[in-house]
Design a protein that fits this description.
Elements lengths: L13 H6 L7 H14 L4 H11 L4 H4 L4 H13 L3 H8 L7 H11 L9 H6 L11 H18 L3 H15 L2
């Protein structure tokens, strides 16, 4: 059963909330790694490791275990297939990649619009406790909800993602 998402603040506040986004610098991931991987249709090993470290430092050692050949092969499939379940699940074959990191890869590198699956963003959408398991069903429900919310609010997925993260940061101190 998919969770029921409900934005904890008014959609008209998304842009303002996103403007206060205060996470670590993501300019390189957003402006260099994402566009480069979109143009090439895959991530390089170096870009993959940097993006994984941006999302979370904890699996950094695991991510480093992937060969450049495996990273290219797996991310080529993820970034070119039209099968959404395959798209996200193939990324899980890489060492150190769980659903949240896979969502970050798709957020920055995918041709379609994908939100970053994050406990802060989920909280901003009414999910009180972190899910014990992040599977395809949760990710896809979250993705569809965020796409509709971004469309309704007329904002980019990046703006929505920043707003969801920042709102939680401010409200859960």
């Amino acid at each position: 059963m998919s969770p029921q998402f409900k934005l904890r603040f008014h959609p008209a506040q998304i842009v303002d909330c996103a403007s206060r986004y205060s996470y670590q610098d993501d300019a390189r991931v957003e402006n260099v790694i994402g566009p480069r991987s979109k143009a090439h249709g895959h991530l390089t090993g170096e870009d993959f490791r940097e993006l994984c470290a941006w999302k979370s430092a904890r699996p950094k050692g695991h991510c480093a275990r992937n060969s450049d050949v495996d990273i290219k092969a797996v991310t080529t499939i993820a970034l070119t297939t039209s099968d959404e379940e395959l798209r996200v699940n193939v990324l899980l074959a890489l060492h150190g990649v769980k659903m949240r990191t896979a969502s970050a890869i798709l957020h920055f590198c995918g041709k379609d619009r994908y939100p970053i699956l994050d406990i802060r963003a989920l909280w901003s959408l009414g999910i009180e406790e972190a899910p014990k398991w992040y599977g395809f069903s949760l990710w896809w429900s979250y993705t569809e909800f965020c796409r509709q919310l971004a469309d309704d609010a007329r904002v980019s997925m990046r703006t929505l993602d920043r707003a969801l993260w920042q709102y939680s940061e401010e409200q859960q101190r």
